[in-house]
From TrEMBL:
<dbReference type="Pfam" id="PF22848">
    <property type="entry name" value="ASD1_dom"/>
</dbReference>
<keyword id="KW-0378">Hydrolase</keyword>
<dbReference type="InterPro" id="IPR055235">
    <property type="entry name" value="ASD1_cat"/>
</dbReference>
<keyword id="KW-0119">Carbohydrate metabolism</keyword>
<dbReference type="InterPro" id="IPR017853">
    <property type="entry name" value="GH"/>
</dbReference>
<comment type="subunit">
    <text>Homohexamer; trimer of dimers.</text>
</comment>
<dbReference type="InterPro" id="IPR010720">
    <property type="entry name" value="Alpha-L-AF_C"/>
</dbReference>
<dbReference type="GO" id="GO:0046556">
    <property type="term" value="F:alpha-L-arabinofuranosidase activity"/>
</dbReference>
<comment type="similarity">
    <text>Belongs to the glycosyl hydrolase 51 family.</text>
</comment>
<dbReference type="InterPro" id="IPR013780">
    <property type="entry name" value="Glyco_hydro_b"/>
</dbReference>
<protein>
    <recommendedName>
        <fullName>non-reducing end alpha-L-arabinofuranosidase</fullName>
        <ecNumber>3.2.1.55</ecNumber>
    </recommendedName>
</protein>
<comment type="pathway">
    <text>Glycan metabolism.</text>
</comment>
<feature type="domain" description="Alpha-L-arabinofuranosidase C-terminal">
    <location>
        <begin position="290"/>
        <end position="492"/>
    </location>
</feature>
<keyword id="KW-0326">Glycosidase</keyword>
<dbReference type="Pfam" id="PF06964">
    <property type="entry name" value="Alpha-L-AF_C"/>
</dbReference>
Length: 499
């Protein structure tokens, strides 16, 4: 079992936009209440934010966080979440059938973003609302002062505008589950008019139109074509979402699912380019993969949750080792299209299908998927190099010719470092991996990080938070002819750092 990869510093795919390492906080389950915020937690700061969670988020160096939804945003009145907290309404939240107390809203979230050192990606409600709420929220957020909404912000104690740059025009509007679900035509018209008005308030913003909720939607990819036809002049990005699961316990097939992500990305790029050609346009529409992850472990448990409580434990997937491997493959999939995937959000960040878990009043810990996400975010900045990969292949239930090796390299010119990310999909055998960095001259190996585990189903819990964690004793070595050789353990995620 031998795989090879050749990379050359002159053969590049594109610059990594650091925002592909974004994440997502929705008013859903315990993401906000019990996740980022818990006023009586022993680590709570003066605003009630959990400092233990802030530290774990900082460890990921998350550049952008999408907020406040998700399905939640399609029924949300942002005005309910600003001003004196004791005067904020408690409302029925229809997307997840809970009670929303509005203890946290727009301004508090902006404060939290500052504390963790991230930017916000805001979504406006185009489900139950429209042009007016979108432009008012933007005026409240970004206009300096001297108008009704900006002065209201000032009166709420926020003198300086928040200057949020990235705005999503609704969420998953193609999905029948969405409050205010629309046809592509209805949505495209509304998104275009809301986007135009928003740009008149603040011409410096970037706008993201809703693409498909997943590749299996019956309206995919006609949805993208119709929406972009109607919004081409107004928007900069089209969003796509995808979650995967291993419901049949077929791990070989599960680890191949990122190949579906590859073709999803390629089809959406093709659709963007078709519309650009049709419009005789200069502008390239890029992709915001603003929800992606593994999501299935919690499905049964969620169907039993009583409605109308505050912050029930919804979507609390406990991730295992194989989930971390697929997350690694999905990150590689996006890096391989770094020329067009400019933003992405692992969904979500805390408790809700998340790399970070907490107990109310108790511990916070790293799930298995924390590690590949952290490695990519920290080491995967720079220019992605074209990966010329040769690998033995296998077939799975849904995919043919699945390479055992999934790999990509990122060149950080500033630091003069190359990082190779590699997954060995083989479940029972190691893979011998040779990397040819022909144009890089002399270099040394800084470290070879490995995430491996005998048990594909091993996971981290509050009682045993370190059951799955990486080590740095991978065996990558320099060969006499100036290449790198490594044995990639069966079912492993690898980060080989070179300088
Ligand atoms: O991330 C969980 C949910 O998944 C989001 O609210 C929605 O956009 C998607 O269906």
């Amino acid at each position: 079992n031998k795989a090879t990869m050749i990379v050359d510093k002159d053969f590049t795919i594109g610059e990594v936009d650091k925002r592909i390492y974004g994440s997502f906080i929705e008013h859903l389950g315990r993401a906000v209440y019990g996740g980022i915020y818990e006023a009586d937690h022993p680590t709570a700061d003066e605003q009630g934010f959990r400092s233990d969670v802030i530290e774990l988020v900082k460890g990921l160096d998350v550049p952008i966080v999408r907020y406040p939804g998700g399905n939640f945003v399609s029924g949300y009145n942002w005005e309910d979440g600003v001003g004196p907290v004791d005067q904020r309404p408690r409302k029925l939240e229809l997307a997840w059938r809970t009670i929303e107390p509005n203890w946290i809203g727009y301004n508090e979230f902006m404060d939290w973003c500052k504390k963790v050192g991230t930017d916000a990606m805001m979504a406006v409600n185009l489900g139950t609302r429209g042009i007016d709420e979108a432009r008012n929220l933007l005026e409240y957020s970004n206009h300096k002062s001297g108008s009704y909404w900006s002065d209201l912000r000032v009166s709420h104690g926020y003198k300086d505008p928040h200057n949020v740059k990235t705005w999503c025009l609704g969420n998953e509007m193609d999905g029948p589950w969405q409050i205010g679900h629309k046809t592509a035509y209805e949505y495209g018209r509304l998104a275009n008019e809301a986007g135009k008005a928003m740009r008149w308030v603040d011409p410096t913003i970037e706008l993201v139109a809703c693409g498909s909720s997943n590749i299996a939607m019956p309206t995919f990819p006609e949805w993208e074509a119709t929406v972009l036809d109607l919004t081409y002049n107004t928007v900069d990005y089209i969003s796509i979402h995808q979650y995967y699961g291993n419901r049949d316990n077929d791990s070989q097939n599960f680890l191949a699912l990122s190949m579906g992500m590859d073709s999803y990305i390629d089809t959406v790029i093709a659709t963007c380019d078709y519309i650009q050609a049709k419009k005789r346009g200069k502008k390239k529409i890029n992709l915001s993969f603003d929800e992606w992850n593994v999501w299935y472990h919690s499905n049964d448990q969620d169907s039993k949750i009583e409605p109308w409580t505050i912050a029930p434990p919804q979507l609390e997937d406990i991730y295992n080792h194989e989930d971390a491997l697929l997350v690694g493959c999905m990150l590689i999939s996006m890096l391989k299209r770094a020329d067009r995937v400019k933003m992405a959000c692992i969904a979500q960040l805390v408790n809700v299908i998340a790399p970070i878990m907490t107990e109310n009043g108790g511990a916070a810990w790293k799930q298995t998927i924390y590690y590949p996400y952290m490695h990519a975010s920290i080491f995967g900045r720079g220019t992605v190099l074209v990966p010329l990969v040769k690998s033995p292949k296998h077939d799975t239930k849904e995919f043919t010719d699945v390479p055992y090796l999934e790999s990509v390299a990122v060149h950080n010119e500033e630091k003069n470092e190359v990082t190779v990310f590699a997954v060995n999909r083989h479940l029972s055998e190691s893979l011998s991996f040779e990397i040819d960095l022909r144009s890089f001259g002399a270099f040394r190996i800084i470290e070879h990080i490995v995430l491996e585990n005998e048990d594909l189903k091993a996971s981290n819990t509050a009682a045993n938070p370190d059951r799955v964690k990486p080590h740095t004793t991978g065996n990558a070595t320099l060969t006499d002819n100036g290449k790198i050789e490594a044995q990639l353990a069966k079912a492993s995620w690898n980060v080989i750092r070179i300088k």
